[in-house]
Amino acid sequence: MASAFGFALMALFVRLCDDYGGEVSSFQKSFFRNAIALVIAAVVCVKELRSSAEGRLALPKTAKSWSVLTLRSVFGLVGIFANFYALSKIPIGEAMTLNKTAPFFTVLFSWMLLGERATLRQFGYLCLAFVGAMLVMKPGFRGAETFATICALVGGLGAGLAYVCVHMLGREKVNGAFIVLFFSAFSCMGSLPFMVFDYSPMTPAQVLIMLGAGAGAAIGQFGVTAAYRFAEPRSIALYDYTSIVFTAALGFVFFAQVPDVISIVGFLTILFAAFRMRT
To answer: Is pTM beyond 0.85 here?
Structure first.
């Protein structure tokens, strides 16, 4: 739930950014978001290293583990790019709802790749969640927003695959702060080439806003990394979905964004599926 609140704050700041200056690309937002998380993760790693009895962190021990860590970063970065683009084009409540199909993708791919038990009942609720997502997207009726809603769903897919990788790394006892550090560094390097060719000068207010986005992202990253390292994905999906409530409330307070009836039905459908899947 701490992770969900952190990502909701991140979404709020990402959306606020363009209101206090020129439009900033999703690549530039991703770079600054991950740069802040990188600094925080580095501080935590140094602190844990100093307090460790062995004087070292639990790093990946095999080539396979390093490959999984790299895949976690690739999937996560794709998810961020897609989600940040969606956040700038559609209401944050709707963007984050579609992004939060991630736990269902995680359950699906945990079954396919890790062999974790998943019942027909759980897959039934997975399908129900997609019905809810389609109600939020309203395909064919969103005009210019259609691409943004698809990007939000792609963001959920990328995040879901990334969480499977985090769960695999948890099985290998890889240090959580190092996972965040590696991902943040990878994301900064992955965002930098795009940002160089599409850089927009930022106002002081935008810089402060992106610092807030980075802080929220760090809370989200540490929370979600701990959650998926120590628990089966299907057991924590319900708590991940509290971000829908947080983002919808923040969207109403800061942007007066009131979802229409169909979107509300979609929200409730996804929440119902998540709750029933958990119980």
So the answer is: no
